[in-house]
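Data follows
____________
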Amino acid sequence: MVFRKPPDGGWGWVIVVVSFFTQFLCYGSPLAVGVLYLEWLDVFGEGKGKTAWVGSLANGIGLLASPVCSICVSSFGARPVAIFSGFMVAGGLMMSSFAPNIYFLYISYGIVVGLGCGLLYTATVTITCHYFDKRRGLALGLISTGSSVGLFIYAALQRELIDLYGLDGCLLIVGALSLNILACGSLMRPLESSDSPLPEKTCVDKVPEQYFVYHEKEKTVEENISILEKGYIDEKCANNVPDYKQDSILNKNVLSSINVNEKDTYKKKVVEQTNFCKQLAKRKWQLYLNYWEETMVLFKNKVFSALFVAILLFDIGGFPPSLLMEDVARSANINEDDYHMPLISIIGIMTAVGKLTLGILADFKWVNTLYLYVTTLLMTGVALFAIPFAKSYLTLAMLSGVLGFLTGNWSIFPYVTTKTVGIEKLTHAYGILMFFAGLGNSLGPPIVGWFYDWTQEYDTAFYFSGFCVLLGGFLLLLAALPCWNACINQSSKLPPNTYSYKVASSA
């Protein structure tokens, strides 16, 4: 598929709007799962670490399957994937209302909803990057605020629905709302070049051409019959043999000729089918090898390698607050009368502000998006270290706002990935990075919950989380230092003879 130059506008703004609402509808409930988390603790009576798996799977399984999601979007396009994923998200939420135990929720809410969200996220990010180049940071910031606004609204909405209709009714209504994703997905028109070459015929289209020999063989049989009839007339005139004898001889010759030709045609058809299957298997195997070769080339880039470690550690430490902050406040014995707004809602609205602000900053030429991303990581680590010292609603609300704003670095992460590997390898690289992000999302909340079950307090857990995020930020900063590029440029400018001499002398 050949894409024309990104228009940076036009129908691209429609893509931004529908992608915004797609992420709003699909990520609203999974990101605001902290409200449901408290209800599941009371309903099923399981431990915090065990119950936290539901929310962590919902937010992590889609990212874990990002390589598969990337292949699906590359193969089928953003529009079909978005429509199919809308059914998955809505169906998973509705199934969760009938959950008899926590293990059922692992499947319905964790895997089904999580996988649908992962497919939708990859589809919206990919098609937005195709439509925008100069304004890509702004566009990605706008669509990524959809999930943050969804977190802000769904946190209050789900709490109100639980009070009115109970937990089961809340999940049914939220699942029905998710069906609007189908309308959004139908508007995701792919950006294709009008003067692109005709697409290569698919394997199905090539199959009939492989078997034209069969029709030719049928014509050959008819020709043989006409030749035999002609020979029959000539022979009859020459030898003056009785007609009934000539007819029996002719019928035997024709039948034997047909049988021989049918056997030959069948054998050739089988051989052609076998060769076709072999070529198809070789082609698929070659595609598989090319995928892993491209993956190895990506990991030779030290910035990309540091980026996947940083995103893994960031999600292990940075994701749990959005899921567990409400329980942190309850564990700190904060009076519910002091709650002016749910802490999850504060995280959500500030995440939206952070995504939009960081997305706008990424479009300025004087801003290095990689260093901007590293700065958000380091500041997130410091904020996580401060959570154990927050003993009032006001301090927790302030830290929730700071963490929410810094978590908005998700809007510039595709931008950083594009600048690191290029737009041509974005889908491949982004799928790999999202896999490690999903691994971090899946492991972070259960680890924090297990720390609480072990120590009966959250202090040690958030010290661990802050250390993970700081470690990832420092590793990425070290890999991104300009001194590495200076060393590479100096070595590449040396004459070949000098370079060979230095290698030989050092050896």
